[in-house]
Specification:
With about 325 residues, the chain is an alpha/beta fold. The chain has one domain: Leucine-rich repeat, LRR (right-handed beta-alpha superhelix), CATH 3.80.10. It is about 15% helix and about 20% strand. The chain is built from four helices and 15 strands. Strands 1-2-3-4-5-6-8-10-11-12-13-14-15 form a 13-stranded mixed β-sheet. It has a two-stranded parallel ribbon with strand order 7-9. A hairpin with a 2-residue loop joins strand 14 (about 285-290) and strand 15 (about 290). The N and C termini lie far apart (about 75 Å).
Length: about 325
């Protein structure tokens, strides 16, 4: 099965929901996935081997309060698995599925991702668990989509091309991330970090193919870190941070493809003539704070830019030459 033929489950983007088990809550009652139940969960027949036999390759055992899925060790042809909304703490039985393509295990009680590398795994979603770090269990040679939103991650480190050569989409919103270091993912196009504890962008310079950046509801006041190698970045969501100076917004002038910028509920958005001033720095913008740029605003921004350039030229002419 080629990447273009993968089922739609590989592109799902469901809303993150709260599903964490509270501290001190009793251990869930044992509930093992059994033969009489698994038949209800199987679908999508596919040819195997020499094409003379068929088997089911999709399993959906979501919403069954399962605590144990060890029976899956016998279902080696499964490729697409959804075990969301259960009480699972381990996914190790999946080690026996050599053709696994897609895994959804949202809203369980997983603390550590204990699965070995899978040669074909491309889609992983484990939002709203109890995961505290991105461990080796998330590293697979073809994985391109990872959703770990709503977990307990505090730091990102050693996210590099060697371990994640194909990773394009990374969702980490609603964690407790304060620090990012040693991140070098040239294939990454979409990064979601909203509702964390970030304060800066010093880590972002190696994400040269990033197109979509969501980092709303953090504590960012400085916009250093962006550079002119980031030629594809089109969308930045910075709403509900603490950027308070237009000079910080001006640091985004190195981004030639930037068309959508959200700075709603930052102090800077209350500055006089905010929209015109920002547009004078960033003429490629189409949308600012959810409102499209008007032709009138473009005209005003052009005049502001023209006046600023004239003032700079005058200042240079007035600088006395050394004797």
């Amino acid at each position: 099965m080629s990447e273009s033929e993968l089922p739609e489950v590989l592109e799902e983007d469901e809303d993150v929901e709260e599903g964490e088990q509270e501290e001190g809550e009793e251990k869930p009652e044992e509930n093992v996935l059994a033969d009489d139940v698994i038949g209800e969960c199987l679908s999508l027949l596919e040819k195997i081997g020499d094409g003379l036999a068929y088997t089911y390759i999709r399993l959906d055992c979501s919403n069954r309060e399962l605590t144990n899925i060890s029976i899956l060790e016998r279902y080696i042809h499964l490729r697409i698995i959804d075990v969301s909304n259960n009480q699972l703490s381990s996914l190790s039985p999946l080690d026996y599925l050599p053709n696994l393509l897609s895994l959804k295990a949202d809203r369980n009680i997983i603390e550590n991702v204990d699965i070995k590398p899978h040669a074909f795994l491309q889609y992983i979603s484990m939002n709203n668990n109890k995961i505290e770090e991105i461990s080796e269990g998330m590293s697979h040679p073809l994985v391109r989509h990872i959703d770990l939103a709503g977990n307990r991650i505090k730091e990102l480190s050693q996210l590099n091309e060697e371990n994640y050569p194909k990773l394009a989409i990374l969702k980490l919103q609603e964690n407790a991330i304060e620090t990012i270091k040693d991140i070098n993912l040239p294939s990454l196009t979409s990064l979601s970090l909203g509702h964390n504890k970030m304060t800066d962008f010093q880590w972002i310079s190696n994400l040269v193919n990033l197109e979509f950046l969501e980092i709303n509801n953090n504590s960012i006041d400085r916009l250093d870190g962006f550079n002119d190698n980031m030629k594809k970045l089109k969308y930045i969501d910075l709403k509900e941070n603490i950027v308070d100076e237009l000079s910080e917004v001006e640091k985004l002038t190195c981004l030639p493809a930037l068309t959508i910028l959200l700075l709603t509920d930052n102090p800077v958005s209350k500055e006089p003539d905010f929209r015109v001033e920002v547009l004078s720095f960033l003429p490629t913008l189409i949308t600012l704070n959810y409102s499209d740029i008007t032709e009138e605003e473009r005209g005003e921004a052009y005049e502001v830019l023209k006046e600023r350039q004239e003032a700079q030229n005058t200042q240079k002419e007035e600088i006395p030459l050394p004797p």
